[in-house]
Amino acid sequence: MLINVVQMAFQICDRTEYAVGGRCSSCGGTLSGYDRRVKRFAVLRDDKGDHLIGVLLHRAYCRDCGRIRVPEVPFYPGTRVGSPLVDLCRTLSETMPYGQVATRLSQMGIKVDRWSVRSYCSVPFTPPPVIAAFGMHLPISVISLSALAAAQGDTGHIHGEDVLAACNYPSRNQRRPS
Questions:
Q1: Which pTM was predicted?
Q2: Which of 123, 128, 147, 170 has the most C-beta neighbours closer than 10 Å?
Q3: Is there a domain that residue 178 lies in?
Q4: Is residue 33 part of a domain?
Q5: CA distance readout (Å), 114 to 16, 45, 88, 172
Q6: Cα–Cα nearest to 92, from 146, 44, 129, 139
Q7: In 3D, which of 51, 48, 53, 44 has the Cα closest to residue 15?
Q8: Distance between CA atoms of residues 111 and 117, nearest Å
Q9: Domain ranges, residue 26
Q10: pLDDT tier, 26 (very low <50, low <70, confident <90, very high otherwise)
């Protein structure tokens, strides 16, 4: 059951879209489309191989000040995977070494190496909120995403804003006090 919860949490994020809305946050100018790119959220592994879970970022260009605006996305600065995966790495590393975390994640169908786990655990943010489930602590972001996936049923697609809310954004952008 734990594997299904974790897999659903990441699968529901596949191809979610994030766009900059409104006006330019610097000058209040008009935004227009700039480009679209896919960013890796996680890599899931099954019997058929590895599957990239990617999210779509729609960047915008301000016609007045010329700046390129990037939408808010569920990624910690300096990481290459989605914040729920970083949260999961950090939570599991509280009770086991990095290598064992990577092995446990592999058993759950998530591809991440121990050096990446180690790197994600050093991200300078407050620890994620957790809940006791399945005999271990799991980040609330993973549980929330899994609940969203269950609520979606067969539609299988959610909006980026829903993912951000489940991952507790924008409040997660605040660094831990030094």
A1: 0.86
A2: 128
A3: no
A4: yes
A5: 27, 16, 13, 24
A6: 139
A7: 53
A8: 11
A9: 2-173
A10: confident
Assess contact for 31 and 20: CB atoms under 8 A: yes
The tokens describing 139, both together, are 């980040």
Per the structure block, which two tokens stand in for 39? 């960013």
Q: Could you give the CA distance from residue 54 to residue 81 in angstroms, rounded to a whole number?
A: 9
CB 102 within 8 A of CB 111: no
* Positive or negative: CA dihedral 81, 87, 90, 95: negative
**Residue 175: what pLDDT?**
41
Task: Give 41-89 pLDDT, tens digit per residue.
Answer: 999 998 999 999 999 999 999 999 999 999 999 999 888 999 999 999 9
Query: What angle, 0 to 180 degrees and rounded to 10, lies between the N-to-C axes of helices 2-11 and 83-93?
Result: 150
How many domains does the chain fold into? Answer: 1
Lowest mean pLDDT among 40-44, 114-118, 156-160: 156-160
Rounded to an integer, the average pLDDT of 116-131 is 89
- How open is the CA angle 100-48-119, to the nearest 5 degrees? 30
Tokens 């590393």 correspond to 93
Distance CA 55, CA 44 (A): 14
Confidence tier at 156 by pLDDT (50, 70, 90):
low
- Please count the other Cβ atoms lying within 10 Å of the Cβ belonging to residue 169: 18
